[in-house]
Amino acid sequence: MNSGMVYFVGAGPGDVDLITVKGKRALQQADVVIFDRLINPFLLTDVKDEAKLIYCGKQPCKHTLRQEDIQREILIHARKGKTVVRLKGGDPAVFGRVGEEAELLAEHQIAYEVIPGITAGIAATMYSGVPITHRKHSNSFAVVTGHGSKDDGTPKVEWEPLAKGVETIVFYMGVKHLRTITSELIKHGKSKDTAALVVQWGTYSKQRTVEGSLATIANKVEQANITNPAIIVVGDVVKLRSKLGWFDNKQLAGKGILIPSKIESNQELVRSLKKNGADVYEHNLLSQFENIGRGQLHQIRQLSAENQLVFLSSQSVYTFLRALGENKLDLRKIDSSIYAVDDTVKTTLQMIGIQSSLASRCELRSPVLIGGELEIESMRHEYPQSSEELVVNKQKVSQKDIEAFSRLVAEQHVNTLLVTSRQDAIQFIKFLELSGFEKNSVVHNLNVVCRGRETSLVLKAADIPVRSFIENENIMTVINAKETVLAVER
Ligand code: SAH
After folding, report:
1. pLDDT of residue 1
2. Is the dihedral of CA 359, 362, 368, 369 positive or negative?
3. Does the CB atom of residue 70 touch ligand 1 within 6 A?
4. Ligand 1 centre from 200 Cα, in Å?
5. Which CATH architecture has domain 122-244?
6. Domain 256-286+397-488 is in which class?
7. What is the mean pLDDT of residues 76-92?
8. What is the predicted pLDDT for the residue at 474?
9. Are strands 388-396 and 5-10 parallel, antiparallel or unpaired?
C-alpha cells in the first residue's frame, strides 16, 4: 500500500522565525497539519491552500482532542498516502509526547521523521537574559515537568537529587504548582535565596518576566497574574539577567503587528519594527484567481479604436494576454490604444513588446480599466464615471489564512493593525467580508494605524476606527504611543 509520511515538526517556542528551515519545508509540503495550541498560528499561513488543518487544543465547545484521537488522525491520513505534519510547540521530544505518537507509527510500519525544534526552556530563558549554563555559575541543567501524575496534579519528582545535584532547573507546565515546587526545593536542600525566574510567552514580543528567589517568586508571580504558558527557572544563572537582558526592554516590546499584505516596499519598515522588538506578521490575506469567463470574453471582443485600455497591474497584463491566447484572439486585431497605470506596469508591457503611455498624463475619453476586482475598486475614482471595467482577476480567502488570522487575534498575538496603503485597506475589508468575521469583534482590540489620509478614509468608511494615520518616519512613535490619538497630516 502507498503509505504516507509523517513529520513531527518542532515549531519553536513562539517567535515565528524560530522554526527550523527543515521544519518549514515540511510544513509547506504537508497535505494534513495536526497542530497544538502552543504553536504560533502564523506558521499556518505557510501551508498549501488545500491542506487539511486539524487543531488539537481546546475546541470551541471546550473539549480537547484526546491523545488517542490525535494518534488515530495521524494514522488515518498517513494510511491514505498523505504527507502529515504533526506540528508541536518547542521541540517535539520535550514534553511533547512524540514518543507515544511515533511508537504507534513504528508499530504500523509507517515512515516518519522527527524535525527538532527550539525548546521553550532554553530559548525563553535566554530571551529573558539568562543562559541556561555558564562556566562560572552553572555546569548542569535539568528540564522537569511541573505538572505530574500525582492525584493533585503536582509533579512526581525525586526532589532531593534534583535540589542538591543540578545547578539550573527549568520547570515546564509548572506555574499552577509553583508553591509546591519552591517549597519542595527548599525542603530538600536548595537555599531559599536561590534566584528564580518565571517567563511567560517567551520569545514573543509580549514576553513577560518575573524575577525573585525561591522564597518570593510565588507571590510575585501571583501578583503579576502570570499564567501558562510559562517556564520556571531556578538557579544562580538567573542573576545574570540584570547584565545580559537584551530582549525585554526593546522600544516596541509587547507589540504584535499585523500588516495585511506582503510587499517589497514595506521591507525596510518591517525590518526596523522587528529590530525594535515587535512581532510583525505580514501576509497577503487574499489570493488572486483568474476571472475570465464568457462575460469578459464578450467585453474583449467589443473593444474598439474608441477605447483606451488601462492596465492597472502587471498581473492584469498577464491574465489579459493569456485570455487572448487561450481563446485564439490576436492582440494586433484590437485597435484600442494602450495605457499603463504606473511605471511598473509600463515596464511590464514594454518587456513583452507593447508600448504604452502613462494613463495619468492623458485625458481618457472612453477608458476600459483592466485589473483585479480590488485594483479597480481602489482606482476607479481617478477615472471618468463613464469608464468601463474589465475584471480579469478576483480575490479569494483560504481556510488556512482564516484559521491563522482568527487564532492570532483570539490569542492576542496581534494588537496592532498596520495598513500601509489604500489598496491594503480595501484588501483587509474584503478579507473580513469574505471570511465572515464579525468586523467589530476583530477590530475592537486592535490599535489601527495607517499610512496616509486616503487609507484612513477607506477604513473609516467601513466603520473601522483608525487611531492614527501617519507618514513613514512617524510609524515607530505612533505604534509605540500608549494612548494614540495622534493624527499627523501630510
Ligand atoms: N515541547 C514544548 C513544551 C510543551 S509542554 C517545548 O519544547 O517547548 C508546554 C509547556 O511548555 C508550557 O506549559 C510552558 O511551560 C512551556 N512553554 C511553551 N512555550 C512557551 C513559551 N513561549 N514561553 C514560556 N513557556 C513556554
Report:
1. 54
2. positive
3. no
4. 9
5. 2-Layer Sandwich (3.30)
6. alpha beta
7. 97
8. 64
9. unpaired
Beta bridge partners of 171: 144, 232
Catalytic residue among 49, 58, 150, 396: 58
231-255 per-position pLDDT tens digit: 999 999 999 999 999 999 899 999 9
Report which protein residue has its CA nearest ligand 1's atom 5.
Answer: 95
Burial class (CB in 10 A: 0-12, 13-18, 19+), 152: exposed
Average of per-residue pLDDT across 66-75: 90
Residue 106 has pLDDT above 50, yes or no: yes
Cα 230–Cα 234–Cα 239 angle in degrees, nearest 5: 105
The domain defined by 290-395 folds into Rossmann fold (3.40.50)
Question: For position 362, what pLDDT does the model report?
Answer: 74
Q: For 357, list phi and psi in degrees, rounded to 5.
A: -110, 160
Higher per-residue pLDDT: 3 or 265: 265
Vertex 350 angle, CA 347 and 354, to 5°: 140
173 is catalytic: yes
In CATH, what is the architecture of 5-117? 3-Layer(aba) Sandwich (3.40)
Measure the CA–CA gap between 262 and 73, rounded to whole angstroms.
Answer: 34
Q: Of residues 15, 31, 36, 401, which has the active-site annotation? A: 36
290-395 matches 5-117 in CATH topology: no
Burial grade of 43 (CB within 10 A; 0-12, 13-18, 19 or more): buried
Please state, rounded to an integer, the average pLDDT across all residues of the chain: 91
* DSSP-assigned states of every residue in 285-311: SSEEEE---HHHHHHHHH--TT-EEEE
- Backbone phi, psi, residue 90, to 5°: 60, -125
Q: What is the pLDDT of residue 68?
A: 87
pLDDT at 488 over 50: no
Structural contact between residues 280 and 257, judged by C-beta atoms closer than 8 angstroms:
yes
Count other C-beta atoms under 10 Å from residue 369's C-beta. 25
Identify whether 36 is a catalytic site residue. yes
State whether residue 431 is helix, strand or coil: helix
Q: What is the pTM of this model?
A: 0.89
> What's the pLDDT score for residue 484?
41
Annotation marks residue 58 as catalytic:
yes
Q: Where are the domains of the chain?
A: 5-117, 122-244, 256-286+397-488, 290-395
Residue 63: the pLDDT is 64
pLDDT in tens, 159-178: 999 999 999 999 999 999 99
